[in-house]
Write a structure and sequence with these properties.
alpha/beta; Rossmann fold; six-stranded parallel sheet; 16 helices; binds uridine-5'-diphosphate-xylopyranose; dioxygenase
Length: 426
């Protein structure tokens, strides 16, 4: 099929490449000339394992093209995926201005029947709005369907997740739309749920919020485990082996970040408020997450005393490993706090570079931790897990490691002569 993907950000580019991989002819459209030129040249503007190879493969095979030509993009493709950003407004709600612009362009420029699919995370009721926006901007009243098909992939494992989804959710209102979507996906070996656009839109927010809830629950339990000297990983494992609970998203740490969980939980709360419903459990989850970095910092103070004038090595900036995304990353909260406390900060990240006159970033872990009063791990990069910590113990002023991701081998680290403090990971 001929598929247009509007928006070549993280989700849009991955979606476009997966469709190309599945044998469709794909056009990636964006208003950002720079992004399009880079993609045409086979260069990704973000870091994601395996995607650049896939991009070059499909550019060579001519299954995918990238363009800034909105008119041609819309007119040459029957299936149009909207993958533009839905940034968070100050009140926590999702800003739909880019979705609206795309919908109105489709209405104005369409030259025949179109299936318009929203993949961006959008509030419940957006499919209806998109339907209206297209209708009011139409010059000729061609038929169209609006579909919701949310994306569940994770940064850092986007390719794997997109190729092996736990499920596909398709929300539509007509038989024709469901049929078109079945043609897009072909025969699939994973669960395929057909529902209404409203339910589909809510599923995305509800799933992300539930995962955030799981993390905040284990993080709060970790505080209790710390008091009781219990290893929270054992507790998580013991709980998770119950299939009704599941082991994933029960890793305690310094808190969740990224472009999805913080934004989506807020957006769901905001939407519920609008309908007079209070999702109090989500409010608590947000609160636990906001305080979790300070919980770890408080531990640091208990061991080091006043932090003023101390040197702290921060390992990891990205909100999780295998991505260069620092949106809502716990590291940023930590850095901000430590700077205000008068701490001398040294930083390392394998892929993210932050330039600031307030701290220095180093190329190697070794340089970063040399002469530090303590090390704080904010991201579970394999570079830190696999690091030969025993070789640098003598270079650290105080061999103390605060592991905000419980990602090091605590026993081995302690055996090497370090003081090790995880999050309820004794
Ligand atoms: C998330 C959802 O998982 C994905 O389905 C959705 O499409 C987009 O949002 P992503 O934001 O890429 O994906 O990252 P994810 O792997 O979910 O991690 C989010 C944050 O939670 C990270 O900061 C991570 O470190 C943290 N986390 C995750 C924990 O603290 N503990 C866990 O057990 C799992």
């Amino acid at each position: 099929m001929d598929i247009l993907v509007v928006g070549t950000g993280y989700v849009g580019t991955t979606t476009a490449l997966i469709f190309a991989e599945q044998g469709h002819r794909v056009t990636g459209l964006d208003v950002d000339t720079n992004k399009i030129e880079n993609l045409q040249a086979g260069k990704l503007h973000f870091y994601e394992t395996g995607l650049e190879e896939l991009l070059n493969k499909h550019l060579q095979q001519k299954n995918i093209v990238f363009t800034t030509n909105v008119e041609k993009g819309i007119q040459n493709n029957e299936i149009i995926y909207i993958c533009v950003g839905t940034p968070q407004k100050e009140d926590g709600s999702a800003n739909l201005i880019y979705v609206e612009q795309v919908a109105k362009s489709i209405g104005k420029l369409m030259n025949g029947y179109k299936t318009v699919v929203t993949k961006s995370t959008v509030p419940v009721g957006t499919a209806e709005k998109v339907t209206e926006w297209i209708k009011e901007s139409q010059i000729t009243p061609y038929e169209y369907d609006v579909v919701s098909n949310p994306e569940f992939l994770r940064e850092g494992s986007a390719l794997y997740d997109a190729l092996h989804p736990d499920r596909i959710v398709v929300g539509a209102l007509t038989k024709r739309a469901f049929q078109k979507m079945r043609e897009v996906f072909g025969a699939v070996s994973f669960p395929y749920l057909e529902t209404t656009p409203r339910a589909s839109e809510l599923i995305k927010y509800a799933a992300n919020s539930f995962l955030a809830l799981k993390i905040s629950y284990i993080n709060e339990l970790a505080r209790l485990c710390d008091r009781l000297n219990i290893n929270v990983r054992d507790v998580a494992k013991g709980m998770g082996l119950d299939k009704r609970i599941g082991t994933s998203f029960l890793e305690a740490g310094i808190g969740y970040g990224g472009s999805c969980f913080p934004k989506d939980v807020n957006a769901l709360l905001d939407a519920a408020n609008q309908y007079g419903v209070t999702l109090s459990i989500l409010k608590s989850a947000i609160n636990v997450n906001k305080t979790q970095p300070f919980y770890v910092l408080e531990k640091m103070k208990q061991v080091l005393g006043s932090l003023k004038g101390k040197t702290i090595a921060i390992l990891g900036l990205s909100f999780k490993a295998n991505t260069d995304d620092i949106r809502e990353a716990s590291s940023l909260i930590v850095i901000d706090y430590l700077l205000k406390e008068g701490v001398n900060i040294k930083i390392h990240d394998p892929v993210v570079t932050l330039s600031s006159s307030c701290f220095k970033q180093y190329e190697t872990v070794e340089e970063t931790v040399t002469n530090a009063d303590a090390v704080l791990i904010c991201t579970d990069w394999s570079q830190y897990k696999d690091f030969a910590w025993e070789t640098i113990k003598d270079k650290i002023a105080n061999p103390i490691i605060f592991d905000g991701r419980n990602c090091l081998n605590a026993e081995k680290i302690k055996h090497s002569g370090f003081i090790y403090r995880g999050v309820a990971y004794p």
